[in-house]
Amino acid sequence: xxxxxxxxxxxxxxxxxxxxxxxxxxxxxxxxxxxxxxxxxxxxxxxxxxxxxxxxxxxxxxxxxxxxxxxxxxxxxxxxxxxxxxxxxxxxxxxxxxxxxxxxxxxxxxxxxxxxxxxxxxxxxxxxxxxxxxxxxxxxxxxxxxxxxxxxxxxxxxxxxxxxxxxxxxxxxxxxxxxxxxxxxxxxxxxxxxxxxxxxxxxxxxxxxxxxxxxxxxxxxxxxxxxxxxxxxxxxxxxxxxxxxxxxxxxxxxxxxxxxxxxxxxxxxxxxxxxxxxxx
Length: 280
Fold this sequence. Notes:
There is one protein chain. By secondary structure, the protein is α/β, with parallel strands linked by helices. The chain has one domain (2-279): TIM Barrel (Alpha-Beta Barrel), CATH 3.20.20.20. 41% of the residues lie in helices and 14% in strands. The protein contains nine helices and ten strands. It has helices spanning 37-49, 71-88, 100-109, 125-130, 157-174, 194-202, 222-228, 236-248, 259-279; strands at residues 2-3, 10-11, 16-22, 54-58, 93-96, 113-116, 135-139, 182-185, 215-216, 253-256. An eight-stranded parallel sheet has the order 8-7-6-5-4-3-10-9. It has a two-stranded antiparallel sheet with strand order 1-2. Helix 2 (71-88) packs parallel to helix 3.
């Protein structure tokens, strides 16, 4: 399985890691740690050395209740980091944004993927990606970051999220975006309660029939704070447990903060599945 990221292929025949690089002051887990270009560059290089197959750069926090930022502020945060990482790394760089103006600028700067929590529903977003050759990750989010955790309600979260993502994949294909440029993400924590998140985790198998790679991002999420009573920097064990469940259910890309540890978990899981294949 190869995802076409504007000339920098992402090979996902075995599961791979997307490293999270938030250049924001207010992201829920690592806000403020990488606001300088130099520190962000160092962390991006470190994640690549730890085994990340892609680096995802975000300049606007989408944590619950986060305040929006201006397009210019987002661009000022992300573009210098994108430009410098592209000169130092051969792996694809992703832009984590829901704003079409940022997508256009980041695509022009050379990113290989747009990772959009809004699934290209903002004005101009679908057109920006379809006019390019970048890949796109379509994520499900109920409501918006300011209100998504107020009172999320579903009759059947797995069926409803799957249907939404199927419709967005179809919209992209109708706009000329090939299947090998598409990735889907059920959006853990984006307008979901703990119960919804657990139901989605248990039902990830149902997303395989959409026919494009599945990305899962559970790293340090609040669901582990609720389940385990842990602060964000103490949620690695819970994140790895959920990651292993996601791998069992077909996830091909794991988006995470703790790259080295997640790469190790994937290696163990992959070795085990290879051994099972030999036995069977």
